[in-house]
Amino acid sequence: MSQTSSSGARLRPDERRAQILAAARRVLLADPHRELTVELVAAEAGVSPALLFHYFGSKKKFQYAVIEEAAAEVMLRTAPDPSLPPDEQLRAGIRAFVRAVLEAPQLYRATLLMSAAGDPEIRALHSDLRRVFSQWVISAVAERGIEITPVVELACHGWQGYVEQTLLVWIDNPTVSPEALEHLCARSLDAILSTT
């Protein structure tokens, strides 16, 4: 398989990796519920599976690269918008998180399952993502004038676990609309905080 692009220019290794990761993104967007396989991505990128392995080393390392890129995008998309009022910052961030998950539900499921199974790299990545998101949520709650006591902080962390499980259940059995799911996730934080 040639290592040139469709325009005939030879790609550097970082460009080829980026091309393959972009192909993985297109595959996810085209059918979010389809399993992301090496064969599907290689075909979309116009390379052989062997060349994909050449650039990523293994299926596991390829999966990690895709998950890492997706996690970076989620953190970027859910970053607070200081131009919005505190309540809207929080709702907008939660909506952005839910929408990012629904764009690639199989990838999200794989991330949680691989983390739960003890994969050290995925667990560390998942922990980083949760920590950044939790810190953002706690800061947004503080901006609403709520004192961040140990109980409130614990409630915010617990809410994130609730959201993860809710999204996993919905991915397997989408009984409500995505809009209803976003609303549920946003309102559940208020409900949990009302008990503190």
TrEMBL record:
Statement: the UniProt record of this protein carries the keyword DNA-binding: yes
Keyword line: DNA-binding
Which part of the chain engages DNA, per the record? 37-56
The HTH tetR-type domain, residue ranges: 14-74
UniProt-listed Pfam families: TetR_N
From which domain of life does this come? Bacteria
| Record Gene3D superfamilies | Tetracycline Repressor, domain 2 (1.10.357.10)
Asked whether the UniProt record includes Hydrolase among its keywords, one would answer: no
Protein name per Swiss-Prot or TrEMBL: TetR/AcrR family transcriptional regulator
Tell me what organism the protein belongs to.
Kribbella speibonae
